[in-house]
Amino acid sequence: MKFYTAILYFSCLIASVLGQTSTTTPAPLNAGVAITNPVLNATAYAGSNYTISWTILDPNATTIETISLMDGNAAALTLVIHNILTNGSIPVSDLHYNWTIPANLTSRQDYALAMRGNNSYVTYSSFFSIINNNATSNNATSK
Ligand SMILES: *[C@@H]1O[C@H](CO)[C@@H](O)[C@H](O)[C@H]1NC(C)=O
Ligand SMILES: *[C@@H]1O[C@H](CO)[C@@H](O)[C@H](O)[C@H]1NC(C)=O
Ligand SMILES: *[C@@H]1O[C@H](CO)[C@@H](O)[C@H](O)[C@H]1NC(C)=O
Ligand SMILES: *[C@@H]1O[C@H](CO)[C@@H](O)[C@H](O)[C@H]1NC(C)=O
Ligand SMILES: *[C@@H]1O[C@H](CO)[C@@H](O)[C@H](O)[C@H]1NC(C)=O
Ligand SMILES: *[C@@H]1O[C@H](CO)[C@@H](O)[C@H](O)[C@H]1NC(C)=O
Ligand SMILES: *[C@@H]1O[C@H](CO)[C@@H](O)[C@H](O)[C@H]1NC(C)=O
Ligand SMILES: *[C@@H]1O[C@H](CO)[C@@H](O)[C@H](O)[C@H]1NC(C)=O
Ligand SMILES: *[C@@H]1O[C@H](CO)[C@@H](O)[C@H](O)[C@H]1NC(C)=O
């Protein structure tokens, strides 16, 4: 909370310094970032470390508040993990995040990540695969 207040104060400070330039830009429909990894149909392995990376679309975007793991149909994604960030929000300027993929995830080809920015909009990744080579959990979860 303290950390957030500090960011808010800092960005207000920047905003007041840069406030003279008045360009009207439409409200962004994403978190101000574009996810560059995973790419479409990338393969990741349950239980391994995976680097999520992104580029900056909106230079004013400050933080990524949550990264959710979803799966299923693009029109109605199902939430699998609400937030994979283990230590709260992360700065957009990090440009990557090292994710330890849980060992108990089901093998699927239709996972997607959803990053929620500090502007409350969401950026989605392409669909990608997570493969679980763990025989026990595969048997327990495959249909
Ligand atoms: C970034 O913020 C400044 C100051 O509020 C504003 O003038 C500018 O249009 C913003 N840029 C974008 C891409 O939203
Ligand atoms: C990605 O995988 C889906 C499902 O397997 C397939 O339909 C699609 O053609 C693939 N796209 C690319 C670009 O490989
Ligand atoms: C993943 O990264 C963490 C932290 O750097 C490390 O402790 C762990 O051994 C790594 N796991 C694998 C499977 O490489
Ligand atoms: C949140 O992000 C927007 C741009 O995406 C930026 O203009 C704004 O200053 C940020 N707000 C905070 C509280 O960091
Ligand atoms: C967790 O985040 C705090 C700031 O919110 C930071 O000081 C600390 O180093 C972070 N810990 C790890 C393990 O990244
Ligand atoms: C993330 O992983 C990359 C590649 O393994 C490594 O160079 C980098 O230091 C790691 N970053 C953090 C914050 O652990
Ligand atoms: C295998 O799956 C079980 C049950 O989900 C889990 O507890 C275990 O950590 C997994 N082991 C490995 C090596 O992935
Ligand atoms: C995986 O394990 C976590 C606890 O470590 C649990 O909360 C979650 O429900 C498990 N997911 C699946 C798909 O079994
Ligand atoms: C899971 O399936 C594999 C091959 O399909 C089999 O060899 C293994 O014994 C099964 N494990 C369990 C716990 O049923």
Automatic annotation (TrEMBL):
The lineage of its organism: Eukaryota, Fungi, Fungi incertae sedis, Mucoromycota, Mucoromycotina. PANTHER family: GPI ANCHORED SERINE-THREONINE RICH PROTEIN (AFU_ORTHOLOGUE AFUA_1G03630) (PTHR40633:SF1), MATRIX PROTEIN, PUTATIVE (AFU_ORTHOLOGUE AFUA_8G05410)-RELATED (PTHR40633). Residues 38-130 form the Yeast cell wall synthesis Kre9/Knh1-like N-terminal domain. InterPro entries: Kre9/Knh1-like_N, SRP1/TIP1-like. The keyword Cytoplasm does not apply. Residues 1-19 form the signal peptide. This is Yeast cell wall synthesis Kre9/Knh1-like N-terminal domain-containing protein. The keyword Transcription does not apply. Keywords: Signal. The gene is PARPA_09392.1 scaffold 36284.
